[in-house]
Amino acid sequence: MGLVDLFHQVKATLRWERGGTANAFGYGSAVVERLLNREGADIPVGTLVQREGTGRVELSSGLDSTGVLGVVVGYWTTTGLMVAGDCPEDAQCAVMTKGRTRVLVDATVNAGEYAFQSGSTPGSAYSSPTAGVGAFGLVDTDGGAGDMPRVHLFGSPLLSAGASSPLTTKGDLWGYDTADNRVPVGSTDGMLLTVNSADAQGVDWQSLRRAAIINLYAPSGGQQADLRFPWAGTLAKWTLLGDASGSIVVDLWKDTYANAPPTVADTMVGGGGTKPALSAAVKNESSSLGSWTTTTIAAGDVLRVNVDSTSGLTRATLILEVTTP
Fold first, then answer.
1. 239, 230, 273: which is closest to 253 by C-alpha?
2. Does residue 229 share a domain with residue 143?
3. pLDDT tens for residues 287-323?
4. Is position 285 within any domain?
């Protein structure tokens, strides 16, 4: 069997002759071809070979000569039986190729451009997309009008005729609402792409939110707990939960690890902010932190929880939600 045509490549068919009867087996986009070994020595199974226009098998590790690149998987006997093993001199080698063939183009194409099969005629292609027709692939070698450059086939066309990429920036994604559209790359390293049904394209980039939980047992005035943040972020919300209705006021002090422990001079809340607090209640929360001195946390910072005042509680839990990055 000679070089299989484009139609066989698209059908993803592995074909060889066994006892004179054609047999076809699905094998991804690979095909097995029959090539004549004129090398003057056996070609071991697994050797990378390349066929020239004369039908000879050439040992090669490159893609710069004419023909089809493949790996020897066996050889045919004189009775037409394919046998696993090294390919002897003058035998018909069984060479497995993967979606690579030469196709005719009707316009000049350059290496790296796409070539598209036209209609159902094997071995013909256009150098521009034809929606819903044939197979497409990347051109390995340049070819002018009427030439047959090598094409690495991928499958069925993905683009409608005339479609162009909406992408403009590194990291952009190709999305869709009522038409193909750009999903811009996230604004900050570490953001996550999440499903969002309210977004026109159904996805958007979101910062990851983490929580630090501090349990205060038998809280009394003064310094109650220390913790260190292994990641950078921004304090977005606090929640206080009491074991009963009671009152507590909490201040948060933050400093670098090198300067630890923090002191009251390192307060995040400052004089104009509202400290986390309960007032004759079992729960309270707030994400209105705009008046705080700072809400920024650097990786490695140390946070100290100071209880300014408390009454009526035997246990309280402080939950800090931090968006990262």
1. 273
2. no
3. 999 999 999 999 999 999 999 999 999 999 999 999 9
4. yes
